[in-house]
Design brief:
11 helices; lyase; 6-stranded mixed beta sheet; alpha/beta; 271 residues; binds octanoyl-coenzyme A; Enoyl-CoA_hyd/isom_CS; 2 domains
């Protein structure tokens, strides 16, 4: 899609306002090289810029997945990493952390469709997404300790938030891989579907459902949830009240409540 730029390591496809972003480096199991990280930043920035009434809200949801049939993303690029200084590695870690924060700030939901390996940085990319749909072939893990490393793209923060401290510690300290059923049991994956096509279709159906709603409200809901994560209840409630106030000032709120009272379907303008 020309609107969102052209990329060497990513494939972007926009259909019915759902953007599918595929990490496409199958020879390295879609490992997050510095080029991939830079392109993810560029692509998500372009999507973010389009999420306004003036730009027409062309994207109402994003599916992130991996190409090649074997992996979602097998982690940071280990080959590239070995020639870095500690400072360069820290910069690499921060640049991908920035991508994960950008995904969390995006005012539309982002769903990771995980088929095959989501390891290390791959698991961390999936964790930055709003939720995960897995296939029966999915494998999750934070194997950094096998390499003498620690999670560097958000795993030490977001994995405990998602699955609880005990399960996260066990996964990170052992480097153990878990299958889709275990990921579902832990709450890491929202759903498990038989194949990649099933999981992609299910993610697009869910995002299609969201696309019919008021986009400003969906964005504010995401902001309130993300903003409350890791905060006290009182701080979280402050953020929720701010989001509620802002939603209350939109035309879409007048339309949604008006349509309810007039017993008709709402038509949202996205402002
Ligand atoms: N980086 C670079 N290349 C990779 C990676 C990777 N993470 N994973 C796989 N590849 C390459 C392999 O080297 C291989 O290339 P080649 O054909 O040229 O030898 C090709 O992909 C296929 O892989 P395998 O032959 O190994 O395929 P298998 O089916 O035998 O095994 C596995 C699949 C189990 C997924 C295996 O490839 C593996 O263990 N990969 C590494 C997984 C891993 O440890 N990931 C964590 C990386 S560390 C990380 O993500 C930390 C993030 C924070 C970093 C902070 C910055 C400092």
């Amino acid at each position: 899609t020309t609107t969102f730029g052209t990329y060497g390591t990513l494939e972007l496809e926009l259909s019915d306002r759902i953007l599918t972003l595929t990490v496409n480096r199958p020879a390295a199991l879609n490992a997050l090289s510095q080029e991939v990280v830079a392109e993810l930043w560029k692509a998500f920035t372009a999507v973010q810029d389009s999420c306004t009434h003036d730009a027409g809200w062309p994207v109402r949801g994003v599916v992130v997945t991996g190409a090649g049939g074997k992996a979602f993303v097998a982690g940071a690029d280990i080959r590239e990493m070995t020639s870095m200084s500690a400072d360069e590695a820290a910069g690499y870690s921060r640049s991908m952390q920035a991508v994960t924060l950008l995904i969390e700030k995006l005012p539309v939901p982002v769903v990771a469709v995980v088929d095959g390996f989501a390891l290390g940085g791959g698991c961390e990319l999936a964790l930055a997404c709003d939720f995960i749909y897995a296939t029966e072939a999915a494998q999750f893990g934070q194997p950094e300790v096998n390499l003498g490393l620690v999670p560097g793209f958000g795993g030490s923060v977001r994995l405990p938030q998602r699955v609880g401290l005990g399960a996260a510690r066990e996964l990170i300290y052992t480097g153990r891989r878990i299958d889709a059923a275990e990921a579902y049991r832990l709450g890491l994956a929202n759903r498990v579907l038989p194949t990649r096509d099933d999981a992609l279709a299910a993610a697009r159906t869910t995002l299609g459902e969201v696309a019919a709603k008021a986009p400003v409200a969906v964005g504010l809901a995401k902001q309130a949830i993300t903003g409350a994560t890791g905060r006290s209840t009182a701080e979280g409630l402050e953020g929720e009240a701010d989001a509620f106030r802002e939603a209350f000032t939109t035309e879409d709120m007048r339309e949604g409540t008006g349509a309810f009272l007039e017993k008709r379907s709402p038509s949202f303008a996205g402002k």
